[in-house]
Design goal:
Length: 187
C-alpha cells in the first residue's frame, strides 16, 4: 500500500484538493476539523456498503452512494442526479481494504449457502444468481479498482473534481491514493 498518502494535517492535502469539499472531507474525518453547518451537499461520496466504515462529517455535507466495492458503474444515474440537480462539483470515491468484493469466487459456496439458508432460495437459482452477477461486481484489487473507476468517472464527468481515496479498516482513516500521473489536476 505504498500508493497511500497519509493525511494528518492540512499541509498534507495536495494542492488540487485544498480548499475544496474533498479537502474538507479529509479535514473533518482525519484531522477533526470542527463541523460547520451546511444547508446543501458540498460533494458526492461513493463508498462501499461495508458496515465497518463510518465517516466523520457534518450533517448535510455530502450525498453518499453506498455500493459493493464503491462500484458506481450501476449507480450512474444517481451520480448524474447529484451533479445535475444537487449541483455538486466534487466526488470522493472511497474504497477500503479487506473488501468483500475482492476475489468473490472464494465466497461462492458461502454466497449460495447463505441464499438457501437465509432467503429460502433453491441452490441452483442461487448458483445461477452468483454466476450472473459476480463478474459485474468483482473488483480485483481495491486500490486498482478505485483508480480505474476514478479514471472512468473523470472521463464521464470532465468538469467534476474526482479524488481516489482508501479507507483503512484498521485505523478508520482516509488515505489519498497516489496516482502515477497528474490526473488529480483541477478540471
Amino acid at each position: 500500500m505504498n500508493q497511500l498518502q497519509e493525511i494528518t494535517s492540512t499541509s498534507d492535502i495536495p494542492a488540487p484538493y485544498r480548499g475544496t469539499p474533498i479537502g474538507l472531507l479529509l479535514e473533518y474525518h482525519n484531522i477533526g476539523r470542527p463541523y460547520e453547518s451546511y444547508s446543501k451537499a458540498q460533494l458526492l461520496i461513493g463508498m462501499c456498503m461495508d458496515n465497518r466504515k463510518h465517516l466523520h462529517i457534518p450533517d448535510n455535507f455530502a450525498f453518499i452512494i453506498r455500493s459493493g466495492g464503491a462500484n458506481l458503474r450501476y449507480s450512474e444515474f444517481k451520480v448524474s442526479y447529484a451533479v445535475a440537480v444537487g449541483e455538486v462539483r466534487c466526488l470522493a470515491l472511497i474504497g477500503h481494504n479487506q473488501c468483500g468484493m475482492v476475489n468473490l469466487i472464494d465466497r461462492k459456496e458461502q454466497f449460495i449457502r447463505g441464499l438457501v439458508e437465509n432467503a429460502g432460495w433453491q441452490a441452483e437459482a442461487a448458483e445461477d444468481h452468483f454466476h450472473h452477477f459476480a463478474p459485474m461486481f468483482e473488483i480485483g484489487s481495491e486500490i486498482e479498482f478505485v483508480l480505474s473507476e476514478v479514471k472512468r468517472l473523470r472521463l464521464r464527468y470532465p468538469k467534476i473534481l474526482v479524488a481516489p481515496i482508501l479507507y483503512r479498516v484498521e485505523d478508520n482513516r482516509l488515505y489519498l491514493i497516489q496516482e502515477n500521473n497528474n490526473a488529480a489536476a483541477s478540471p
